[in-house]
Write a structure and sequence with these properties.
Oligomer: heterodimer
Largest sheet of chain A: 8 strands, parallel, barrel
Number of strands of chain A: 12
Mean pLDDT of chain B: 84
Structural class of chain B: mainly alpha
Radius of gyration of chain A: 18 Å
Number of strands of chain B: 0
Helix content of chain A: 40-55%
Order of helices and strands of chain B: HHHH
Mean pLDDT of chain A: 96
Radius of gyration of chain B: 15 Å
Helix content of chain B: 40-55%
Order of helices and strands of chain A: EHEHEHEEEHEHEHHEEEHEH
Largest interface: A-B, 37 and 32 residues
Low-confidence stretches of chain B: 92-97
Number of helices of chain B: 4
Strand content of chain B: under 5%
Largest sheet of chain B: none
Distance between the termini of chain B: 46 Å
Shape of chain A: globular
Distance between the termini of chain A: 18 Å
Strand order of the largest sheet of chain A: 1-2-3-4-7-8-9-12
Number of helices of chain A: 9
Chain lengths: 270, 106
């Protein structure tokens, strides 16, 4: 049950070869234009594969008002493409109307939790369907937390009635950056809440792990992935690669690795 | 103002402040934000980039990212004013000469 992030250098090759994949994931914002070649091309991918619409710009955790235009654009895409999955990040991006266009971490407070739960509810209402929210990588933590990140993610999903897009690379990166136990992190999120899994590569820089999406998935992250699918059962799994994009075959190899791990985990669980 | 709103307001103010923060973790977020916005400009203005060269473009884009806020979560909406007269061409370089071999702005 694996897919890849569809990236511009691979568009033609994917349409030509039609590799065996369970879904393709695209960034929702790249298809917000009212017409044009990008949307027409996405129709062709949709004829061949289920789609996952992955948002990066809704700024769910921001205290700025929800961007109604953004939400309308997303709702239009959802109606048009009837995606298998719709996801956003459990993060924030703007304050006072100024966007960092980055996935900034939230403080893990009761106040922030109540805020994102209300916002997720509002988005699900506007879209008329369940969304998934992804745990993000982070390089700093705000003081005054009332709970751990994993508790925050799990509670946000449980209270809002959405599901978790579990990014195991982000769990690994954050565990290293904040001195947290990655296995305990995983075990905090109830298996039934996990609706999709992301895997990706990262790099070490300046004493931190940086979530670059620019390398193969490392062995440690694959081990964490195996633990996740053993706990949760097989879930749609996406190989994310955004910088230094390799050949399509490399992405397909990574997707096949995920499938193999999920299959072996299912056999062990049986 | 709620505690969350105050935290977010202060964080974004530090992110785009004139002086980079000393803390390497906060610095990382600033560098990421400026790189993301500069990257959006590079994707939108490939011809300008070729004309002025990577180094000049990179510095102009970084200054633009600090000075001109992004107002949308959709990065494709950023940079509408970047190549206008007097912006990329005179973006605070002061005495720096215009890159050679390029036309004067209108």
């Amino acid at each position: 049950m694996s897919g890849i992030g569809l990236r511009a250098p691979h568009h033609g090759e994917v349409l030509r070869r039609r590799p065996a994949l369970d879904f393709l994931e695209v960034h929702s914002e790249n298809f917000f234009a009212a017409g044009g070649p990008a949307l027409a091309e996405l129709e062709r991918f949709r004829e061949a594969y289920p789609l996952s619409l992955h948002g990066v710009g809704l700024s769910l955790g921001s205290t700025d008002p929800l961007d109604e235009t953004h939400l309308r654009n997303l709702a239009g895409l959802v109606r048009r493409f009837d995606p298998l999955l719709v996801s956003e990040h459990l993060s924030w991006s703007s304050a006072g109307g100024r966007h960092a266009n980055d996935l900034l971490p939230l403080p893990y407070t009761r106040e922030a939790l109540a805020h994102v739960v209300a916002r997720i509810g509002r988005v699900q209402e506007a879209l008329g369907r369940e969304i998934l929210v992804e745990n993000v990588s982070s390089y700093l933590a705000f003081p005054g937390a009332d709970m751990t990140e994993a508790q925050f993610v799990a509670e946000a999903a449980r209270r809002s009635g959405c599901r978790v897009l579990l990014d195991v690379n982000n769990v690994y990166v954050n565990a290293a950056n904040h001195g947290v136990d990655a296995n305990a992190w995983l075990d905090t999120v109830p298996a039934a809440l996990v609706g999709e899994i992301h895997v990706a590569g990262h790099e070490a820089r300046g004493g931190l792990l940086i979530d670059t999406h620019g390398a193969r998935v490392c062995d440690d992250v694959w081990a964490l992935y195996a633990r996740a699918v053993e706990r949760c059962g097989p879930r749609p799994t996406l190989v994310e690669w955004d910088t230094d994009i390799p050949s399509l075959d490399v992405l397909l190899e990574e997707a096949a690795t995920a499938d193999g791990i999920a299959r072996r985990a299912a056999e062990r669980a049986a | 103002m709620s505690a969350l709103a105050a935290l977010q307001r202060d964080f974004v103010a530090r992110l785009f402040a004139a002086d980079a923060p000393q803390d390497p973790r906060a610095r990382l977020y600033r560098d990421n934000a400026l790189a993301t916005l500069s990257g959006a400009l590079a994707a939108t203005y490939p011809v300008v980039r070729r004309l002025v060269g990577d180094a000049f473009f990179g510095e102009a884009a970084r200054r633009h990212a600090l000075a001109v806020p992004s107002r949308s979560g959709d990065l494709n909406a950023y940079g509408g004013t970047f190549a206008g007269p007097g912006v990329v061409w005179n973006c605070g370089f002061g005495t720096s000469p215009r890159p050679t071999g390029t036309a004067s702005p209108p």
